[in-house]
Amino acid sequence: MKNKKLILVILCLVLGLGIAGCSAKDISSKFVGSNNNDFEYIKENYFEKILLSDIANYLNISSRYLSKLFYKETNLTVLQYLNIYRINKSIDLMMTTDKSLTDISLSVGLGDLQHFSRLFKNIIGISPSKYKKMLLHD
After folding, report:
1. What is the number of H-type helices and E-type strands within the chain?
2. What 3-state DSSP class applies to 68?
């Protein structure tokens, strides 16, 4: 339970929501389920390879304009948000399935386990294998 709170705090800080009173609902309302089609596109396609141009084409705007709007709204690049979303989904899978880290990596659109592990550690602060072990001990 302590680890889940740590992840929540990290996400709240990364998303600029602050710590006081921040909840998982605040995080999801900031992105997932909002009226922003770019977030919906990521939500519906995160498990595939997504290029900035894919989202821009979906929205019928230029990639440059999308990047500018997205960063203005979130203080994150599209790639940063996509990576955070994928890592969040991987944590969900760790908590709800017995999938291997390789399978989880593939399930969230990060085909290379080494890349997944590096990305996970950069965002969460520990390796996915250590995180998964901590989940098993909680």
Report:
1. 9, 0
2. helix
